[in-house]
Each structure stands twice: as structure tokens, then as C-alpha cells.
Specification:
Strand content: under 5%
Helix content: 40-55%
Number of strands: 4
Radius of gyration: 23 Å
Number of domains: 1
Length: 319
Amino acid sequence: MKSAIAHKIGKQASAVERPQLASIRPVTDCIPTFPSTRYYGSKRRLLGWIYAHLSGLQFNTVLDAFGGTASVSLLFRAMRKAVTYHDGLKFNEDVGRTVLASAVSLSRNEVEVFLREVRPSTGTISNNFKGIFYLDEENRWLDGYMLKLKTQRRSLLQKSALRYLLYQACLKKRPFNVFHRANLSLRTRTNVKRSFGNLATWQRSFQHHILQAYDELADINTPLNSRVDILPAANVDALKTGYDLVYLDPPYVGLDDGHNADDYWKRYHFLEGLARYERWGDLIDKDSRLRLFSPPSWVAQWSRLATFEECLFHLLNLA
């Protein structure tokens, strides 16, 4: 009799909707789940140090003004702060929108299907970048990927995610993970003893690296109830004020104003072109050995020693 009553009570209790409980994960446990990155100047490896210095401060809203890989924004999100992400480069807008999303906007199976349906094609990349960054067949595959993305009806989040995954793959397949030199010969030359880089990584397919980047996205673990705003890529001077805390990690600037080896535009112009794929062909300087195109004025100003200091103190005065 007792077991029958207990069974009946158990059935009634199970029919009542119970509150969903979630454990509070320490910030330091969240950090290892953040995606790896090959972005120059990323603070991914310094997040523990940054957290140690910020955890004692009282603030609720934060602006990550030069957001880049969004690693620091992820840290603020793990700290349960209301985060606003901004970067001056358009491809990083895709990065922030994807990495800081409450969930991955596509399933792994959807990404796999998309990759299977990509057909190599002739387009902006194969017409302009022969022998510069990737092999001919890789250039045609990249064009096919972007053309496939263009023809599909997808949400803003999904398109950003598919571009983000491609950016990560493009970085991995590049010697030194940048685009300021051609360096394709480092991959193609045979019988060369290499003391740097990873030939096996360069030779793996875009598809392989895209799925690897997807798996890292799916592993991100941060609180979902913290607010995140992604601002359009624009001049940082145009941003509104009023945040409790502003985190600034501006671009590196070389001491030689005539040659900035740390020029982010030159290092990542190819990814910026992918972010503007439909107009990219019209923007490219055909006389440029690397097929560069002109940066927005604010990117150029933050990249030059002659104007960097003025930009920095102007921004500090706004804050």
C-alpha cells in the first residue's frame, strides 16, 4: 500500500514543472573553453592575468572597444557583465557576433551539409590572388564557398558564423597566420628543412579546419543571462559613452612611421575582403602585389605613429 501511494505521489510531482537549476561555474573554469586563436596580439593567453586584476573592481557595463577575437569580451561575459563589443574591422564584427552568441546558430550537421555542397568556382579570389596566398584549387574552393553563402537564405547570425569559420580556416592555412606577405612558397617548396610553422596544418583542407573551429565554438561555456551588444564596425570615436568600464587594446604601432610592420590592415586585408566579398573585386588595387585595398580612414589613423597618440588621447577624453 505504501509503495502504491508513493508511486501516485511521485507521478503527481513529476507532472508539476520544476525550476531548472544550473550551477554557477567559476570564471577561471570558463576560460579554457574559449576558442583558440591565431590572431596577432590576441589576449587569449592573458585572460587569467586580466581577470585577476579586474575581479576586484565594481562594474556592471563594459565596452570592449577594440574587440578583435572577442576573447576579452568572453571573459567579461563569464564575469556576468553587460558587454558591448566593437572593432574597426568588418570581419571582426562577424567574429564578435559569432563568438559572443548565446548559442551556435548552426548545427554541426548543417555545416557539414553546407561544406559538401560547395562547388569550386571562378570568382574574385581566383581572378586576383593566383600564386599569392593559396593554391589555385584552394582559391577556386574559397570562391565556391562564398558564392554558396551568397545564394543561401540564412539569418545574419548564420552568415556571420559561416564567415567566421572560414576566417579561422584561412588563418590556419597561412604561414605565420597573416597576409602581409605572399609566403606561398613556404608551403609549395619541396626538400626544405622547416624550423617553424606546421606543414601538416597548412596542408589540411579548409573543410577540416572549419569543422575544428566549429567544435571549439560549441564548447564555449559562459553564462547565458548576461547581455551582449555587437556594434557595427566603425570609428571608435563615434561610440557612445556611459559605460562603467572601458577596456582598450588598440593596434600595435611601429616606431618607423614609414613602415609599420604591425599594420593590422595589411596583416588581415584578405579576411576583410571576405567580409566584403560582393564588392571586393571593385575595391582591390590591381597594382598592389598583395592585392590590397584602401582601409577606412580611422584604421589608417590608428596604424600610424604620427596620428596614433592623437587618436588615443582623443578617445580617452571622450571617455
